[in-house]
Amino acid sequence: MTKPVVVVGVDGSPSSLDAVETAGHEADIRGAELRLVHAFGRPSAHLPAGVPPWNPAGAGVRELLDGTLAAAERRAHDVAPHVDITRDVTVGEPLMVLEIASRTASLVVVGSRGLGAFSSLLLGSTSAHLAAHGHCPVLVVRGRPNPKGPLLLGVDDSAASEEAVSFAFTEAALRGADLTVLHVCRTGSSDGYDGPADPPFVTYDEAHLREKAEHVLDAALAGLRERHPDVTVRRRPVVGRVRHTLIDASADAQLLVVGARGRGGFTGLLLGSVSQAVLHHARCPVTVVRHRGEDPAAVGGGAEERP
């Protein structure tokens, strides 16, 4: 039986080494192999003039590569000494390389900032591309996670949320962590206002909105609590604004799990303003779980969500 594989992007930056450490831990708890991937996004930027880009080893950079990957392998071995580790050096754009690697991986792990070809990996359209087109969950290492904190799961009532819910329960069980399940029911004012508080003189039926949020949580959790009786679940129905609520709640979490697309409180979560807020400002690592029923090629063109 083939082992599952956890893939991590490596470029030697402090952020990527943090990602390697996280990936090693994730591989360990899954009984998976760890694959260290380094990609030359622009060969001409890395290789001396006159050296064929398909033969980087002939450019005298073998020592550099070996040093970068050896440091990453040592970091992974320190946290997961029993995990099998492989190295993969590829010429190609890092995002495309990681996307291809995600087809056979159970998880792809990346740092929030990098060097060279991985620079700004999670800024702007590149983050949306990897989240939308990856074929497995993508874990973004950022913030300062609370290792004793719960997993935080953001849900809505869309099909896109189903895989995220299942992933979060499995991850909580693997980590021996509690799971906080949060749904944000937005007010009319929160759809068009992004100040520190709701505009004056705006009223809404908070009790009704909380009741709607409870129904969403009931549907999201149906059957999963019975399948994972060892996971302690805390429900959080919230009335307010999605990105502020998620970011604030992430402060005490060890991991934030979200679906790649949704509706209601999480519409376009990883395509618009909410995605940028989470990827830039979440205070713990973020795992993006895409709905398997979606065509990855069709996801990237969605409209930006209103705040």
Can you describe what's shown?
The protein is α/β, with parallel strands linked by helices. 37% of the residues lie in helices and 18% in strands. The chain has helices spanning 14-30, 43-46, 62-79, 94-102, 125-133, 160-175, 206-221, 224-227, 242-249, 273-281, 296-299, and strands at 5-9, 33-40, 85-91, 107-111, 138-141, 151-154, 179-185, 233-239, 255-259, 286-289. The chain has a ten-stranded mixed β-sheet with strand order 3-2-1-4-5-10-9-6-7-8, with helices on both faces. Strand 9, helix 10 and strand 10 form a beta-alpha-beta unit. Helix 1 packs across helix 3 and helix 4 (94-102) runs parallel beside helix 5 (125-133). The radius of gyration is 20 Å and the shape is elongated. The termini are far apart. Residues 119-125, 190-195, 267-272 and 295-307 have low confidence and may be disordered.
